[in-house]
Amino acid sequence: MMFKSLLSRLSDPAPAPLSAEEAELAIAVLLVRLARADDSYEASEKERIDRVLAARGNLGPWEAAQLRRQAEAIEREAPDTVRFTRTIKDRIPHDDRIGVIEALWDVALVDDARSAEEDALIRLAANLLGINDRESALARQRVEARRS
């Protein structure tokens, strides 16, 4: 039910606000879209998405994996990234949006390689979320520091 609700809200030119659960699902879809951006969606990226979702939503491993699987199904049929990020921007405060950018960097850097496609998607998402280049760079640095 949440699947159809989220898709219909994202397809609506003036979507109603999302519930907290729908907002987390939209973020999960954005993470999946990023992981698939370089045409290589690996197990390490899925595991990282699960960890990010678990930490964001205080979920157990099974619930996080289930949320990721829902996001994978939605991502295949979802509208463009612009609508996703607008929906997220309208639903969550600025500081939490910086957390979304950190989550995107966390997934992008899991394979220790930055692709042009992933960088472009993060730049687009940051811009649409109202996160400036400096804030995005600092988010990336925080993720890199945690990984080292």
TrEMBL record:
<dbReference type="InterPro" id="IPR007791">
    <property type="entry name" value="DjlA_N"/>
</dbReference>
<feature type="domain" description="Co-chaperone DjlA N-terminal">
    <location>
        <begin position="24"/>
        <end position="141"/>
    </location>
</feature>
<dbReference type="Pfam" id="PF05099">
    <property type="entry name" value="TerB"/>
</dbReference>
<dbReference type="InterPro" id="IPR029024">
    <property type="entry name" value="TerB-like"/>
</dbReference>
<protein>
    <submittedName>
        <fullName>TerB family tellurite resistance protein</fullName>
    </submittedName>
</protein>
